Amino acid sequence: MVTNRLPFDYRMEVRLNVKYYETEDGDIPLEKWLTKNKAAMAKLFAVTQRLKDGNMSSVKWLSGRPGIGEYRVNWGAGLRVYLMQDGDEIVILLCAGFKDSQDKDLARAETYRADYLRGKKYASGRH
Questions:
Q1: pLDDT for 31 beyond 90
Q2: What CATH number did the domain enclosing 106 receive?
């Protein structure tokens, strides 16, 4: 006997809330980067959709940079999107860049992550 039924609900959805890092001044670094790299917009949209769907399989968590993940996109000059998680359901996109600016982009991602965590600490009254 053969059946199409599965013993579990295969339509179970994992939905993540994807947000963009915003500085205290209201700047969104990823938005600024996209204005200079418009061709990457569709790729970034696809990355955002995959993350919203809970697909973190392309994220490499960087051992030398705790809390920073790198989502590599095999496109152009090697697109990288740097991110962090805030709990189990929130992903924060910090910044993006290409392979040739990787070191500089990672340093920015670390700065943005630290700033985000510092702001969260003060917002919760734990300072």
A1: yes
A2: 3.30.2310
